[in-house]
From TrEMBL, chains A, B:
Keyword rRNA-binding recorded: no
Subcellular location: Cytoplasm
Reported function: Catalyzes the reversible conversion of 3-phosphohydroxypyruvate to phosphoserine and of 3-hydroxy-2-oxo-4-phosphonooxybutanoate to phosphohydroxythreonine.
Full protein name: Phosphoserine aminotransferase
EC number: 2.6.1.52
SUPFAM superfamilies to which the protein is assigned, alphabetical: PLP-dependent transferases (SSF53383)
The record's free-text note on cofactor binding: Binds 1 pyridoxal phosphate per subunit.
PANTHER family: PHOSPHOSERINE AMINOTRANSFERASE
Domain Aminotransferase class V per the UniProt entry, residue ranges: 5-349
GO MF: O-phospho-L-serine:2-oxoglutarate aminotransferase activity; pyridoxal phosphate binding
Subunit structure as annotated in this protein's UniProt entry: Homodimer.
Record has Nucleotidyltransferase as a keyword: no
Length: 361, 361
């Protein structure tokens, strides 16, 4: 019986069923006597693990045939460099929408390789909101436009996607991929580090439309060349085999639970419960984001009396509710409600907030 | 009872004791309820895992204080790009010794970022041998000189290290790190992908002298900037947490077995047994490398009658001896004898070779 809940922004908790399956399958000896930890990654056993994970993800997201699915080593920050290195081609510049902490980091890194047009600027004024799509300024001749649909640190999300015309839309969906259905065809490239909704740290999924692989990438490291990785089925460099195996188990689990529509329903319900409790606290707790921009996966909130932040974190940890501290750039509180967080975890947090209010209010 | 042996060039088998420990510890719930798969990598629990692994490796190799130990995502091919990107600085060129397949791949990748002087050229003539150190041509003004002390695919090793004077020596020690004591102070930088002697796929260890971090690296991706990774203790990007935990367990196991001197003794004995059996086969089996250049960890050999290669691989697999196929570039046979390979595995292979000879000779 799990009486602890992990509200960290990542790595997230894993469903108990996935942990149990991992414990059984990762240590099982295959025909060649090897466990998943020891299989040659050029061999049949790992090849089957890789193919199954890819097929399952393609199925879950209804990824069109003209998109490649890559499982690459490292986290999203590595893709902050690899996206411009792979996609810039002969274009003069790239466009980025600034919507907070992580898109700003993506912009800084892209600026080392290309001229960046900031298509929309985050103001950071309260209530927090992603920049309005109507104000986007998007030059025709940029190689792509980059968006961060969910800002993990700021706790805000775009209510809708921009229309970028012929400019390929590139998205860092690290914290929201597989939390809801997504129309892949609207994007040129999607990337997501695995440790939130897709398993464990050390792997990033890249989904890329095949025509974007044709652009020259003279200085991209071979290990990060999307074209080479697509041609070699993510094995152009040593793949993160265990992270890929775990991602496959997460994909299976999501499918068994009812797929992305079900994840979306559950996610909306969990987020509504928590935001409603914050809003109903009479100002004792408060959420800084405008309602329509509130992230359903990273609920950022705070205590009106900031002197109570540390006591609340300690109080909740004693009740088995862990890692509620806000991002270091902002302080306050944050509850991340990824797919593996059960509704009981959210209800336990709400009960804890009520009890804390009674004791300290 | 393990009756199968994994002779793959990587990932290698893991010691049974390490697998058992992983099964127990990776799934144990910590104070916050999280398993190793779920711990925040900025948190205390993973911080302790990281610090222990680093301290143990420093101890095993007697790494001097002025060297940083980094645990980075990805494999050695990624470092083929990152070494020149991090170390080129303002130098006009870099020097590489060509000793076979993997050093040639390192040279090709470095050539995309810098002018490469090939300090020594591999001839590939039989008997196979690394280029003699006496013939090395090493310009004073190169940023570093790169060597691959053990060529995993070719099955050859340098019998001694070159004297590069003031030029920092950089080595890809992927297949030989921790198989013998090594004088770290002779190197400016060492790197090794983990899946041979240090655990599982998806992580590379970099050991780098701190003065080499001062060189400017204008285009190195932030996630691969050694300076940033040193400053942030390998967490400048999402670290491969499980691979780091496994590496720590491998370091502990090596220490418990008696450390690098013991690994060296065992390795020499295993290699001598196998090469002696090959040499004593009356030419039925043969090793293409000159005796003094024979790799102790990657024993490349072949059947005089190459039509027997496939039947031998099948025959040995039926006896639980797996992954003896040679590197795809060369064909033939290869038995990798990393630290986790017990002497019984080598004896089983020798017995299998003798039986096969009786049946097919």
């Amino acid at each position: 019986m799990n009486t602890s809940y992990n509200f960290a922004a990542g790595p997230s908790g894993l469903p108990a069923a996935v942990l149990e399956r991992a414990r059984k399958e990762l240590f099982a000896h295959g025909d060649d006597g090897s466990t998943a930890f020891e299989q040659p990654f050029t061999g049949e056993a790992f090849g089957a693990t890789l193919a199954r994970a890819r097929a399952r993800l393609r199925d879950l997201l209804a990824v069109p045939d003209n998109y490649h699915i890559l499982f690459l080593a490292g986290g999203a920050t590595q893709q902050f460099s690899m996206v411009p290195l792979n996609l810039l081609g002969n274009a003069a510049h790239v466009a980025y929408a600034d919507s907070g902490h992580w898109s700003q980091r993506a912009i800084r890194e892209a600026g080392r390789y290309a001229a960046v047009t900031v298509a929309a600027r985050y103001e950071g004024e309260r209530p927090l909101a992603a920049p309005p799509l109507s104000a986007w300024r998007l030059p025709d001749d940029c190689a792509y436009c980059h968006i961060t649909p969910n800002e993990t640190a700021d706790g805000i999300a775009y209510p809708a996607l921009p229309d970028c015309g012929d400019v390929p839309l590139v998205a860092d969906v690290t914290s929201c991929l597989l939390t809801a259905p997504l129309e892949v065809a609207r994007f040129g490239l999607l990337y997501a580090a695995a440790q939130k909704n897709l398993g464990i740290a050390g792997m990033t999924v890249v989904i890329v439309r095949d025509d974007l692989l044709r652009r020259p990438a003279p200085l991209v490291p071979s290990s990060c060349d999307y074209r080479a990785q697509a041609a070699q089925e993510s094995r152009a460099n040593t793949p993160p085999t265990i992270a890929i195996a775990l991602a496959g188990m997460m994909f299976d689990w999501i499918a068994q639970q009812g797929g992305l529509a079900e994840m979306h329903t559950r996610g909306q319900r969990k987020a509504a419960l928590l935001y409603d409790a914050i809003d109903a606290s009479g100002g004792f707790f408060r959420a800084p984001a405008a309602p329509v921009h509130r992230s359903p996966v990273n609920v950022r909130f705070e205590l009106a009396n900031s002197a109570l932040t540390a006591p609340f974190i300690e109080y909740s940890a004693r009740r088995g509710l862990h890692h509620l501290r806000g991002h270091s750039a902002f302080g306050g509180l944050r509850a991340s409600l990824y797919n593996a967080m059960p509704e009981e975890g959210v209800r336990a947090l709400i009960a804890c907030m009520a009890d804390f209010t009674r004791s300290y209010g």
